[in-house]
Amino acid sequence: MRPFVQIATRPEDDVALTERAAVLDFTGLEEHQLLWARLDRDPFPDLGGEDISGIILCGSPFTVSDPAPSKSEAQVRAEAEISRVLDRVIAEDIPFLGACYGIGTLGTHQGALIDRTHGEPLGAVDVSLTEAGREDPLIREAELPHTFTGLVGHKEAVHTLPPHATALASGRTCPVQMFRVGTRQYATQFHPELDVPSIIERARAYRDHGYFSPNEMEDVFDALRGRDADDAPRLLRAFATLFAR
């Protein structure tokens, strides 16, 4: 089997390592089947569609809609690399699944309007499939119910999709929770690479990044512990199963 590639843009080594462990767990891939590209520090390896099965891009402390002067060198470097990777993804029809930061990067690349209108604080939200989502091959492979719990925490979101994109899932406060371009390029606003224990661990690492009030952190965690969010991670296993070659 050709390997998949996980793109990471988290400068914090401990958070990046736990994220990689989660992706390995939820995809069911072995270490050698999931290459790791940390684009906040290194270029993407010289790999194309003939070399890999697909690409998974996870969340990030970066926000694509931040004013350019406020972006760090690591963020500027990562976003330039991701744009270059997405050029190749689209040109070569490489399977792609981007989570949270992935919706901002793929959306921006494809001409979506990304802004802070539909940001959501850390929490669990109801995500409902659209009619197109119910028929989508990846979602059907994952056997997602028509409404499921998504774990979120984001400052920006899709405001408007371009005409060629297909909305696959929506939420009450964030209208675009998942979309597809082409036939094999996906992005989610919710985090399929996280379950409740792991999003709590992640939130502790980013408690001062503006996703929630630190004074309310334990109350937010208590609310999360009462939710079942085990459906969304099946997207990762489905992605690895459907597109492995």
UniProtKB/TrEMBL annotation:
Boundaries of every Glutamine amidotransferase domain copy: 50-194
CC annotations in GO: cytosol
Keywords annotated in UniProt: Glutamine amidotransferase
InterPro entries: ChyE-like, Class_I_gatase-like, GATASE
Organism per entry: Brachybacterium saurashtrense
Protein name per Swiss-Prot or TrEMBL: Glutamine amidotransferase
SUPFAM superfamilies to which the protein is assigned, alphabetical: Class I glutamine amidotransferase-like
First and last residue of the signal peptide: none
Pfam families in UniProt: GATase
